[in-house]
Design brief:
It contains 16 helices and 14 strands. With about 450 residues, it is α+β, with helices and mostly antiparallel strands. The protein is flat, with a radius of gyration of 42 Å. GO terms for molecular function: DNA binding.
């Protein structure tokens, strides 16, 4: 390696007419090194690498991923590289992205400016912030309209957050998702904070609804509603939403089921509990702060909200719901039934469009792949299938069956043959033929008087 002084001297000697060999002997370095510095192939003061960097085999993958998604988080890319065998550190990856210019330039994002925010103190165990995240373009197997719905709950003090996927954002699914997230968080805080979602409050006034007041009393929490257009007031959950959308949702593949997506989100949330924090001058983590929060246990029973979801019956007289299948009586294939489940109960009811209850089953564990059949449904389905069978001898496929007379006549009509064509007349009575032949065998004779009169 040549220093800046050595590089300057080498260029000066070269201008004075020295040969490369003479310059190399004068500086005590190799001729090839002198030639590289004089040609500008090497930078003075930087040592040339004798072995490739750890990132080198993965540069092309990084370039492709960032070209496909310029806003892909480096932490998400780092997780993917680790699974591919990358042994470097996260700082080495971000350094390579900057030095090699792997992330494409996004002009619209350069014009976005930050805004001033205030730091709000959140005592431990006091507040949980809630928000829906509408995730676009869900996998086709989820049977969602345009968005997948994720309810995110975050502890305001420690920043621990968890999420629960839901098929809709109505009142019953909000209650179910709140309970699922609270179980994952480890308990209930003193207060819950929401934005102006219609299932919680009246958006115009910000006053909570009578239905959700019952939910708040059930969990013994106070409810705070944010002022309109004040996203910073619940900035903890907003940042969690950002992480869920950017670090998790962007990596969900088309063949992922809802249960698999929920499991992968849970693993990510547990991993993010290891984020480093510094409180009162002491180094700690999000998980340690969350474990120290004084959370209350959930009530023994769920709030009795009633879930209703529509499903289509399969030809096997089964209805798919939450990763399991439940039987209905035969004869409903292709019909739409309503799956009804009251939170806290262990039964599932299936009703027709007219409101008739056609089946009631004990609910299986979600995502277990169980097939829950009623014995009466099994017998009725077997009888319906067997009654459709026939003991008659099946038709043979090698019988000679030429076109019938009616088919020939219709074919002639299609060809345009006239209906009174003598050539098309078929003689079916031989007596008519004999009488005609006898009449034609006698020569007709004419009377002379008649001829004279004519």
């Amino acid at each position: 390696m040549l220093s800046l002084e050595g590089d300057v001297e080498a260029h000066a000697l070269r201008e004075q007419g020295w040969s490369i060999s003479a310059i190399a002997r004068h500086l005590g370095i190799n001729r090839r090194t002198v030639r590289a510095y004089l040609a500008g192939e090497r930078v003075p003061g930087q040592r040339q690498r004798s072995e490739p960097l750890v990132i080198d085999p993965f540069v092309e993958y990084c370039r492709i991923r960032l070209a496909d998604d310029p806003h892909l988080w480096a932490s998400t890319l780092f997780d993917e590289l680790v699974e591919l065998g990358f042994t470097g550190s996260y700082p080495s990856l971000t350094l390579a992205i900057r030095n090699l210019g792997l992330r494409p330039h996004c002009e619209p994002c350069q014009s976005v400016k930050g805004r001033d925010v205030a730091v709000i103190d959140h005592p431990p165990g006091v507040e949980t912030q809630w928000d829906w995240v509408e995730l676009p373009d869900p996998p086709a197997s989820w049977a969602a309209d345009r968005h997948a719905h994720l309810l995110v709950g975050a502890l305001a003090h420690s920043s621990r957050w968890r999420g629960a996927l839901a098929p809709a954002e109505d009142f019953a699914h909000v209650v179910e998702a709140i309970e699922a997230v609270s179980i994952r968080l480890g308990g209930v805080t003193q207060r819950w904070r929401f934005d102006r979602m219609a299932t919680v409050c009246h958006p115009e006034s910000g006053r909570i609804t009578a239905a959700f007041a019952g939910v708040a009393k059930h969990y013994a929490v106070a409810v705070d509603v944010c002022p309109p257009r004040r996203g910073n007031r619940k900035g903890v959950v907003e940042k969690s939403n950002h992480a869920a959308a950017q670090r998790w949702w962007r990596t969900v593949t088309d063949d992922t089921t809802i249960e698999q997506a929920q499991a992968s989100l849970d693993r990510l949330c547990v991993k993010l509990d290891g984020r480093r924090r510094r409180r009162d001058g002491q180094a700690t983590t999000v998980g340690a702060l969350a474990d120290a929060e004084p959370l209350r246990s959930l009530p023994t029973g769920s709030y009795p909200a009633e879930l209703t979801e529509h499903r289509i019956v399969t030809p096997q007289a089964l209805v798919s719901w939450r990763g399991n299948q439940y039987s209905v009586p035969p004869g409903l294939a292709g019909a739409t039934v309503t799956v009804t489940h009251r939170l806290g109960s262990d039964t599932v009811q299936l009703t027709t469009a007219s409101g008739a209850v056609v089946a009631a089953h004990r609910r299986a564990v979600d995502g277990s792949g169980a097939v829950v059949r009623d014995a009466g449904h099994v017998v009725a389905l077997e009888q319906a299938v067997l009654s459709g069978f026939s003991t008659a001898r099946p038709c043979t496929h090698k019988t000679r069956r030429p076109p019938s007379v009616a088919a020939v006549a219709e074919a002639a009509r299609l060809r345009g043959a006239p209906a009174n064509d003598p050539a098309q007349k078929v003689v079916i009575d031989l007596a008519v033929y004999a009488a005609t032949a006898a009449r034609l065998s006698v020569v007709p004779q004419h009377h002379p008087t008649e001829q004279n009169q004519e």
